[in-house]
Amino acid sequence: MSDQTEGVLLPPGWYADPQDPARERWWSGASWTKFDHRAAKPGLFGEAHARAFWPGANALARRALLLLRIGLVLLFVVMATSIWATAAGVALTGTVVGGFVSMLLCCVGFGVAGLVFGVRAMGASAALGGGGVAVHSTVASGVLVLWALTLFAFALVLIA
C-alpha cells in the first residue's frame, strides 16, 4: 500500500481501501494502518447517512446492538409465555411468577449494559462512525429497561 494518496496527505479517518474498494482502511494521517472493515453499503441519502447506521469499526455500537437484541428476545419470551399461560389457564404460582421475574431482571441487566455501551459508542462515533446505531441502541435499551421494570412491578403485585 502506498503511504500517500495522489501526493495529498489526508486527515486521519476511514477511507476506501486502495487495494479493496469493498473495504475501508484507517488512514493515520501519515500512512495506512492494518485496521480495516467492510465498507457501508451505499444508501439513498448518501455516504454520511449510510455510515451513521453501519456500526463498522465501532465495536461499542455493535455490542450495544447485540445486548439490545438479546434483551428484547428475553422480554418477548417472557411476554409470550405469560400470555400463553394465562390463555391456557395455568395457575400463576410463585414458581412461575418467579421465573418471569428472573427473566425480567435479565432483561433489565441487558438493557442497562446496552445503555452503557450505547453511550460510550456515541462518544466514539465521531472517529469510528456508527453514530446512528449508537443512538438507536441507547434509546431502545432505555425503553427496554423501562418496559421490563414495568412488567417486573406487575409481577411483584401478582406475587403479593
From TrEMBL:
Pfam families: DUF2510 (PF10708). The keyword Transmembrane applies. It comes from the Bacteria. Keywords: Membrane, Transmembrane, Transmembrane helix. InterPro entries: DUF2510. The chain crosses the membrane at residues 66-87, 99-121, 133-159. Residues 12-41 form the DUF2510 domain. This is DUF2510 domain-containing protein. It comes from Herbiconiux flava.
